[in-house]
Automatic annotation (TrEMBL):
The lineage of its organism: Bacteria, Pseudomonadati, Pseudomonadota, Alphaproteobacteria, Hyphomicrobiales. One of its GO terms (molecular function) is poly(A) RNA polymerase activity. Residues 187-239 form the tRNA nucleotidyltransferase/poly(A) polymerase RNA and SrmB- binding domain. Gene3D superfamilies: Beta Polymerase, domain 2, cca-adding enzyme, domain 2. It comes from the Bacteria. Residues 30-152 form the Poly A polymerase head domain. Its EC number is 2.7.7.19, 2.7.7.72, 3.1.3.-, 3.1.4.-. This is Poly(A) polymerase/tRNA nucleotidyltransferase (CCA-adding enzyme). Keywords: Hydrolase, Magnesium, Metal-binding, Nucleotide-binding, Nucleotidyltransferase, RNA-binding, Transferase, tRNA processing. InterPro entries: Bact_CCA-adding_enz_type3_sf, NT_sf, PolA_pol_head_dom, PolyA_RNA-bd.
Length: 418
């Protein structure tokens, strides 16, 4: 089976072509490798262009710098040199083979064997190469699998996984993005058998894969298979006994309502709204502080009923966490829409949630029309001033934000006389 990516706009970049020419000169050889080839053949966007070469890392640096490019030894011990060409970074990696693995990282030897380099990679669709003219080189059957959207380990699935247990999560992540139908049976069985190896991985690597999976156009099928294989529980125990059905309705709502795919919102749809557990999850997977805080705030915030008035919602928004309230409303709207075809009550609820979300989209937090200086003029100072200001702010919110400065001052004077 043959293919070409000669028409790809990124391949005609003069700086990229110059870099390839430099690496291909004097007996060297260089090819585009991996994701850029795969995505171009699938008609998907290409974010990064990686290059594989027979040149050793030092020779890559020498050639690139002699041609006027800047270089950085971002992974020189594993053969990777980043070359800056035309302001764009290209990772150039020497052909290699694994000589020792421990399930997390590998010791490699450099070489010039393209087949050995291909066979050390994870999946057939990720082991495609392309020459400078766009001709695709397939050494492991990746084109056939790409055509059928089959995600298949190269060689023996268990062997590939034991080299790096992260490949279990990558199997489902790539299936979510590029797979079709049922996952490859041998790959699925191997992931189920070796799922305990996930515990050996660093938290950062696990969360990185889960987040990319949750960011797929529709991760629901992949997550269903993860659940059945026991992999989802191994990676995300908070989802156990909670269910993942809600993510199906959420993806449909995103597509129908034009919402951007949101990995954190999708995560919220499959875990319990328990603030303590969300804090534990964030700590265990070492989420960014802003990510953990979002999960905790969502879990600690009460849901909003679809019958609530805009006025009452405005009070909750002022006193609470706007993003957390919005997250609950999005999840509840998605759920109600999913039930609406068989349940008239759910259809009405969906309308209420949509109304409240629309209100949040236009709501702006109002400013309290009273300042500490106003109360100081009445002779209030110190802790008493703060307490009084807080009490007056509460009355202003309870009034629906209609009490003005004069009304609040009158109320303050009355409170001071009591």
């Amino acid at each position: 089976m043959s293919a070409t990516i000669a028409g790809a706009s990124w391949l005609s970049d003069p700086q990229l072509q110059k870099l390839l020419a430099v690496l291909n000169a004097d007996g060297g050889e260089a090819r585009i490798a991996g994701g850029a080839v795969r995505n171009t053949l699938l008609g998907e966007p290409v974010a990064d262009v990686d290059i594989a070469t027979s040149n050793l890392p030092d020779e890559t640096v020498r050639r690139a710098e002699a041609a006027g490019f800047r270089t950085a030894p971002t992974g020189a011990e594993h053969g990777t040199i980043t070359v800056i060409a035309g302001g764009k970074p290209f990772e150039v990696t020497t052909l290699r083979a694994d000589v020792e693995t421990d399930g997390r990282r590998a010791k490699v030897v450099f070489g010039s064997d393209w087949t050995a380099d291909a066979e050390r990679r994870d999946f057939t669709i990720n082991a495609l190469y392309a020459s400078a003219d766009g001709s695709v080189i397939d050494l492991v059957g990746g084109l056939t699998d790409l055509d059928s959207r089959t995600l298949r380990f190269i060689g023996d699935a268990e062997t590939r996984i034991r080299e790096d247990y992260l490949r279990i999560l990558r199997f489902f992540r790539f299936f979510a993005w590029y797979g079709k139908g049922r996952p490859d049976a041998e790959g699925l069985k191997a992931c189920a058998r070796l799922k305990d190896g996930i515990a050996r991985l660093s938290a950062e690597r696990v969360w990185s894969e889960l987040k990319r999976l949750l960011g797929a156009p529709d991760p629901s099928r992949a997550m269903l298979w993860m659940r059945q294989a026991g992999v989802l529980t191994a990676a995300l125990p908070e989802s156990e006994k909670w269910g993942i059905d809600a993510i199906h309705a959420l993806v449909r709502a995103e597509n129908d309502l034009g919402w951007k795919a949101d990995p954190l919102l999708r995560l919220e749809s499959i875990v319990p709204p328990d603030a303590a557990r969300m804090k534990t999850l964030g700590d265990r997977l070492r989420l960014a502080n802003v990510e953990t805080d979002r999960l905790v705030q969502w879990a600690a915030t009460a849901k909003v009923e679809p019958t609530v008035t805009e006025g009452e919602l405005a009070k909750r928004l002022y006193r609470g966490n706007v993003d957390a309230i919005a997250d609950h409303l999005r999840l509840d709207l998605a759920s109600a829409r999913g039930r609406a075809e068989q349940d008239d009550k759910a259809l009405i609820e969906a309308g209420g949630y949509f109304r409240l979300l629309s209100f949040i989209g236009t709501w702006q937090k109002p400013d309290v029309p009273l300042r500490g200086g106003d109360l100081a003029a009445l002779g209030v100072e110190g802790a008493a001033l703060g307490s009084l200001l807080k009490a007056l702010e509460g009355e202003w919110v309870d009034s629906g934000f209609v009490l003005d400065r004069d009304a609040l001052l009158k109320r303050a004077a009355k409170m001071l006389k009591v």
